[in-house]
Specification:
Blueprint lengths: L12 H12 L13 E10 L19 E8 L10 E2 L2 E3 L6 H13 L8 E4 L3 E2 L5 E10 L11 E8 L10 E5 L2 E10 L2 E4 L2 H13 L18
Parallel strand pairs: 1-7
Antiparallel strand pairs: 1-2, 1-4, 2-3, 2-8, 5-7, 6-7, 9-10, 10-11
């Protein structure tokens, strides 16, 4: 099992191999779902580049070659989950498997097209309060990936350094009046990301980076994410 202080987080082949090895050793849990309520998201590893631009994140030039996760803020015009943090993703089209959906949605949302051999593995399905089963697909984009947000779906694209998800104050847990389980959030700069996206980030951190077989399906989501 790896420890945060020993991790090398450069966007290089050694990190890709670590993530792929840890995923291969992880027994994924899937959830029963019908075709109309199955979604997939791309948890994509790239380099920070110039994408660490959030309040509270210092701008250090040495970060640019470090590894990051690619996240978006959803467009304000969207009918559901407008403005929320998200991974590129969406509902499976007829005949698709989650890998195909995650890669297609990433291309449609941020113009990043990657082949299927960049898929490193999967994390647990997560059942959202809005009635979908999300299948997280872990993808390696590597250094130098270029993105352009689709304004119909994405307000902005962000590359959050993996080191930010290893902070000592992560995850943030708070009690929920509607559930026996706490709401999970992940701090990012001076902001935070809420479940369900935060739950996937936390499991990525635990499984892919630290080699811990941590489950997250039980964590509650804030009420704004239910709709």
């Amino acid at each position: 099992m790896d420890h945060p202080e020993s991790l090398q987080l450069r966007c290089e082949s050694a990190l890709r191999e670590r993530i792929q090895t840890n995923l291969a050793a992880f027994q994924v849990r899937t959830s029963a779902v019908d075709d109309a309520h199955h979604a997939a998201v791309a948890i994509t590893v790239t380099d920070v580049g110039h994408g660490a631009d959030l309040p509270g994140l210092p701008s250090h030039s040495h970060w640019q070659a470090d590894a990051a996760l690619l996240l978006t803020r959803r467009a304000a015009s969207l009918r559901k989950h407008a403005g929320q943090w998200a991974f590129p993703g969406g509902r499976l089209d007829p005949g698709e498997i989650p890998t195909e959906t995650a890669l297609r949605e990433m291309h449609e949302e941020v113009s990043l097209e990657l082949p299927e051999d960049r898929v490193l593995g999967f994390l647990d399905d997560f059942v959202t309060r809005s009635g979908f089963v999300m299948t997280p697909v872990v993808v390696w984009a590597g250094a130098g990936a270029q993105t352009t947000p689709n304004p119909d779906e994405v307000a902005s694209v962000h590359r959050i350094p993996l080191s930010e998800f290893l902070r000592s104050d992560a995850p943030m847990l708070e009690s929920a009046t509607s559930s026996e389980h706490p709401v999970l959030r992940m701090p990012v700069g001076d902001d935070h990301i809420a479940a369900p996206t935060a739950a996937l980030i936390y499991q990525f951190r635990e499984v892919c980076l630290l080699g811990r077989h941590t489950r997250v399906a039980h964590y509650e989501q804030p009420e704004f994410a239910w709709r």
